[in-house]
Amino acid sequence: MDEEYDVIVLGTGLKECILSGIMSVNGKKVLHMDQNSYYGGESASITPLEELFKRFKVAGSPPESMGRGRDWNVDLIPKFLMANGQLVKMLLYTEVTRYLDFKVVEGSFVYKMGKIHKVPSTETEALATDLMGMFEKRRFRKLLLFVVGFDENDPKTHQGIEPKKTTMREVYKKFDLGQDVIDFTGHALALYRTDDYMDQPCLDTINRIKLYSESLARYSKSPYLYPLYGLGELPQGFARLSAIYGGTYMLNKPVDEIVFEKGRVVGVKSEGEVARCKQLICDPSYAPKLVKKIGKVIRVICILSHPIKNTNDCNSCQIIIPQMQVNRKSDIYVCLMSYTHNVAAEGKYVAIVSTTVETNNPEKEVQPALDLLEPIDKSFVSISDLYQPTDDGKSSQIFISNSYDATTHFETTCDDIKSIYKRMTGTDFDFENMKRKQNDVFGDDV
């Protein structure tokens, strides 16, 4: 351990493992340590089920009706992958896909007036949906056609809209859309958690709706993918990538202190030894003095013996409860996975409810979502603080990731990875460059 490294990474959460993989591919000498005995940190999948009971301090062992403990892999943080999103591109370009198997999530639903409605995934479904009236559908279709045909670099496709100036509120007005359709577009398609986006330039929203429709076009059931055996497989896949390129891994390794000289990081002390480094990446738990709290997220893991009502018996789905429907500032999400994804015992389902905490009674805030899941066999509640670094890390060369937010996909996760990469290297993260470096090692025909 008494060696010099280019980069030391602390924690094996998804962000840390992806960055460790990328840095190794880039030829950096990487040491990756975790004080836990398992991979994944905050983004781990817990197995066996007994371990989940222990983690949430539940007395006794799981009842026999829950099947074999080792058949369970329960995510601590619920997220799906957008089929055409950034994380899938990272997986493809780094070829980490060879360690993983994915299934398409069977449906996406939205909550309106106390009921669950399917988010239309084809033109036929869009015409048949009871989410909006006939005239609304026509106007909504016009908006979708505009978005699909939109090209930022071709003003002819802009229909008089200035993408970096015109707000989304003005775009909705231009297409004469009512509040219900606005709610649906912003929250179920663009996947915003709040309505702050309405007064921002419309380009980001247009790109988000485009991403949704392009992801949907790949598989037609929903725009989401989910890995067999749970999300904990993702950090492990990137850890393997790092190891192939010479990265060193140490689990169960206590971190005694981060060592500084003249305000810059120079190494990490563990069990009396110091590993030296030029740069350091870590999650907030390793550098509590260098992060600030920006909020809280509540997540409730629910074990069910049935699919969710009114979802056509989907084995996997997402339900979005837009904030306007339940008088909140931010949306509530439900992610459902099941035994068909090898994350639960035969015939069992795992639903995870999550949202940003807004009051002193977080459990009451998620009640509308829990009501949709009844009867619930067992639930596990976690309330986590959200942290972000107090500075960009350039002077200390310590680059700290943000906590995982309440969104149900990995786009914000990838934005954070790209931001850290740019601060560390001074250059933008380039997907194609990663592919070229892979080919140098493996040849073109892998």
Structure, explained:
The chain contains 13 helices and 19 strands. Mean pLDDT is 92; it is low at 442-446. With 446 residues, it is α/β, with parallel strands linked by helices. Helix 1 (14-25) packs across helix 12 and helix 3 packs parallel to helix 13. The strands form four sheets. Strands 1, 2, 10, 11, 12, 13 and 19 form a seven-stranded mixed beta sheet that branches. Strands 8-7-15-16-17-14-18 form a seven-stranded mixed beta sheet, sandwiched between helices. It is globular.
Descriptive keywords:
single chain; 446 residues; alpha/beta; seven-stranded mixed β-sheet
Mean pLDDT: 92
Number of E-type strands? 19
Total helical segments: 13
**Terminal residue distance:** 33 Å
Oligomeric state of shown chains: single chain
Strand content range: 15-25%
- Approximate shape: globular
Low-confidence stretches at least 5 residues in length (pLDDT < 50)?
442-446
Q: What class, by secondary structure content?
A: alpha/beta
Largest beta-sheet details: 7 strands, mixed
Radius of gyration: 22 Å
Helix share of residues? 25-40%
